[in-house]
Amino acid sequence: MINVGMSTSCAFPQPTEHSFRLAKLAGFDGVEIMVTNDQDTQDPDALLSLSTRYDLPILSIHAPVLLLTHFVWGRDPRVKLEKSAELARAVGATTVVVHPPFRWQTGYGRDFLRIVRETASHYGVEISIENMFPWTALGKTLKAYSPGFDPSLLDCDAMTLDFSHASLAGRDSLDLAMAMGDRLRHVHLCDGSTSMDDGNVFDEHLVPGRGSEPVAEVLDYLVARKWSGSIIAEVNTRKARSEQERLEMLRDTLEFARRHLGQTDRQRLGGRAGPQVRSMLRRASLRAITALRPSTN
User: Which of 43, 157, 221, 247 has its CA 20 to 30 A from that of 284?
Assistant: First the structure.
């Protein structure tokens, strides 16, 4: 069974517990932790406590993204990756997602693939390199990542497919998934509608089905291949006008995944919970704004 989880980035910059509540109310199978300045995202004890409280396993860890979390775990990108792997092992996550190095991270970029393999082997986790996109400035395309933004062209063992990033790069996601082949181990579920070639410079992370990427076709392809990785919702909900609207965006994302993965028999709400918990969550969803307030305990 393919697990469909939710990234804590879906509720950024809200506290980590807020993400766990949203994921539980929406009915996801687990969560991916985006490591940020929020101390809870860096603390295995805090994360395990939340995982137990909401009965949601931690499926994966997303290593700190340089421009967003420049000083998290210091400035050495290798240390950031190692600490992400250590955190994954401590909380029982099997996968660490990492972006390719920026071009100006010359030493890290030169040794990146070796560092990824050594770190994965040492900590016993899979480190999955995410597809990114070229940057543009003053109408010119810049090589922002080294050794490159497309992991399908790199000598790496595991890759993450992000639909919004593929859209920005002007890449058909189904072609990219096929190019990744057996090395495709993780998916960030979202959508995109425009590319850099169209003059767009924003990473959209739309609800799947609201953009132009062949998201449904990729999910169908994965099912046909009997794929066994995790699919993690990574949608931008910051334009939601209320917590109920944010929750519905996440439910729509999950429903899209369930439908195209052939999991429509699973409960839309509280998919991992028993009957009593599902009943409680249905009632709680009607009071979502109140239910999603951070705990004061």
Answer: 43
